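Hi all, long-time lurker, first post. I run a small reading group and we've been trying to get comfortable going from sequence to structure in the token notation. Rather than ask abstract questions, I figured I'd post a concrete chain and ask someone more experienced to write out its structure so we can walk through it together at our next meeting. Sequence below, copied exactly:
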Amino acid sequence: MTTERTLLQERLISIVKRFPRRRILVVGDAIADQFVYGAISRVSREAPVFILRHEQTETVPGGAANCAMNLVSLGANVSLIGVVGEDAAGRALVERLETAGVDCTGLLTSEKLQTTTKVRILAGQLHSTRQQVIRLDYEGAPLNSEFHEPLRKRILKEVQTSDAVIISDYNYGVGGQEVARDVRDAATNRGIPVLVDSRFRLSEFENFTSATPNEDEVEQLLGKQLANVTALESAGEEMRERLGYRALLITRGSHGMMLLEDAVAPFHIAAIGAREPVDVTGAGDTVIAAYTLALASGASFPDAARLANYAGGLVVMKRGTASVTGEELVESLLR
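-- Answer (accepted) --
Happy to help. Here is the structure in token form:
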């Protein structure tokens, strides 16, 4: 082991040790991820389909709620601002969040809305590993203007005691342009970083600190396929400048990550861990959680990206919507 690598390990571990002293605000679309497990018992006589014998149903936080869970797991103090319905999925979601230690006082509930729920059916033979066979989404109605003012008031209050903010946009209404503008203005006044994770509309989020799109999302935003790494570097830098970000962290699956920072050459980070992931569900939430928490703890963009890479490498080896602990991150760094 070289001295240089030892110094890098020590520096990254010292950042992780500062995680518990940071408070992070997450604003976005809270989703209930529901996993229904069943064993294949026989083939139906009505149609050529398997009949599953139900084993268990588990509801866990997804979307912005999963981002909050990852932050708590890494040791941070976390507040979540969003909207859920007054239904069984919403109640189960809030219960899991509060049990984990997430501050849910900014999570509005409404009987007019259905909690966005993603139901994954996992099936297999009696003694085999269950595999996802289909997903069923229950999407709530778009948020109307009546929610904007309550959300704005919560944001203005919570930003005052936060060290960084994450906007987690799954295109279900909370992370829209009006809310994003409120977050940006309030955070700018305090000089704290704001990071964006938007699945479909990153081009609408301008003048924030950073974002974490994956390579496919970059291509979709640009409307073209990128032939090689050089093309990705050029396109990513163009996107970073156009959006007015200080840095852009592009995740590339088994190819690792690429960090594009203002006035700095592209920084490539090799993937950590096994080449074949077990489950990538929610991995993006883990990445932005670790990345943001590191920046809030005084890390440079490259060091924050390194820690996000380690966290992402750990979480994809877990099944379902999962999170990573600070202890697991330190152990991975030492390996």
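A couple of things your group might point at:
The mean pLDDT is 91.
The chain is about 35% helix and 25% strand.
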